[in-house]
Design brief:
The protein is an all-alpha fold. Helix content is 72%, strand content 0%.
C-alpha cells in the first residue's frame, strides 16, 4: 500500500484530525484516508450536479415556444393577483 507524507501539516488541523479519529475509533491514518475519500466523493457529486444543471439550462434554451405561449410564471402571478 502506498505511503503518503505531508510536510508542514498545521498543528491545529492535526489536533482536529486526531480528535475526529478517536471519536470514530480509527487510527489517524485510517481516518485521514476516509476523510479524503469523502471529500473527493463530495467533489465528484458536486461536479455531476453542475453538469446536470448545465444540461438542463441548455435544454431550456433550446426549447422554442410558440409566439402566443404564456409562461407558467405569468400564470402564477395572475392567479395570485386574484
Amino acid at each position: 500500500m502506498p505511503t503518503l507524507y505531508v510536510r508542514d501539516f498545521p498543528e491545529e488541523l492535526h489536533r482536529r484530525v486526531r480528535s475526529h479519529a478517536q471519536k470514530q475509533r480509527r487510527s489517524i491514518s485510517a481516518d485521514v484516508a476516509v476523510l479524503i475519500d469523502q471529500a473527493l466523493a463530495q467533489e465528484s457529486r458536486r461536479e455531476r450536479s453542475l453538469e446536470a444543471l448545465k444540461r438542463i439550462a441548455d435544454l431550456r434554451r433550446s426549447i422554442v415556444l410558440p409566439p402566443d405561449a404564456v409562461d407558467s410564471l405569468t400564470l402564477l402571478r395572475e392567479d395570485r393577483a386574484r
